[in-house]
Amino acid sequence: MSDRVLAAIDSSQFSEGVCDYAAWAAKALNAPLSFIHTVDNHAQVAEPDLTGNLGLGTREHLLEKLSGIEEEHAKVSRERGRLLLDAAKERAVSAGIADPQSLQRNGTLVETLVENEKEVRLLVVGKRGETAHQASGHLGSNLERVVREMHRPILMVPKQFTQPHNVMMAFDGSKTARKGVEMLAKSPLFEGATCHVVIVGAETAENRSQLNWALETLREAGHTAEGAIRAGEVEETLRTYKQENDIDMLVMGAYGHSRIRHLLVGSTTTAMLRKAQLPVLILR
């Protein structure tokens, strides 16, 4: 059953934010919370070419030592993961979560998440993992693959938690985008927050009709909703609206075939996610 908030943690600087946003989401959704940590033991060390390395011992002896080092490394990685999971559970309990669970799995992060997605209502991940480049504009390759392969909503979070009060959704009026508005309207995640709906395009009767539908859908579900139609380049227009309205969370859809989709599921890492300093909820 898809009812669980699943938070993927590692030893990166984003893990505290993952814990705090996951606890917030679990309480808002009245859903159980689980933390997951993966230990990737699939990395292969290339066999060394020892031809001519006189005095360094036999080839078999060196390979045996390398194997022992890899086994020890795996043990250390598992123990580190266990400590991270224990710390995450303790942090969640202090935030009011009654019985957080923890899972440790061997394998790659993406494969593990896809295998467990049937149980997931919301996946919470950091913008970058422990092995990613630390430049502020870098988006972890794991996250990019997760967005492409998961079929559950994904909350990408920054390092520090901020209670969302102004949420912005990019909207293009397509059938799948309307489905996203309906998902947002039904979710208790943003109860008490103002939902902003922004169409990037010309001020036409069709766009105005689409915006009115979105606002009415949100308001009928009990949300405070505001909206705008803005002409311009998508990324720049959304960024300007975000700054003008103190937006503290973005909601976007990885669906359809519009310009909004290409922000999220293009052939290269998208500028919108790379530059985002706010949490981004990606609807599927």
Largest sheet: 10 strands, mixed
Radius of gyration, whole Å = 22 Å
Proportion of residues in extended strands: 15-25%
Report helical residue fraction. 40-55%
Mean of residue pLDDT values:
80
Poorly predicted runs of 5 or more residues: 43-48, 130-139, 256-269
Shape field: elongated
Count the DSSP helices: 9
Family: Belongs to the universal stress protein A family.
InterPro entries: Universal_stress_UspA (IPR006015), UspA (IPR006016)
Domain UspA: 1-158, 206-284
Protein name: Universal stress protein
Explain this structure to me?
The protein is of the alpha/beta class. The chain is 42% helix and 20% strand. Strands 3-2-1-4-5-10-9-6-7-8 form a 10-stranded mixed sheet, sandwiched between helices. The two termini are 17 Å apart.
Please summarize what this structure is.
This protein is an alpha/beta fold. 42% of the residues lie in helices and 20% in strands.
Fold topology:
Blueprint (H helix, E strand, L loop, with lengths): L3 E5 L6 H15 L3 E7 L19 H36 L6 E6 L2 H8 L3 E7 L14 H9 L4 E4 L8 E6 L3 H12 L7 E7 L4 H16 L3 E7 L3 H11 L4 E5 L5 H6 L6 H5 L4 E4 L1
Parallel strand pairs: 1-2, 1-4, 2-3, 4-5, 6-7, 6-9, 7-8, 9-10
Antiparallel strand pairs: 5-10
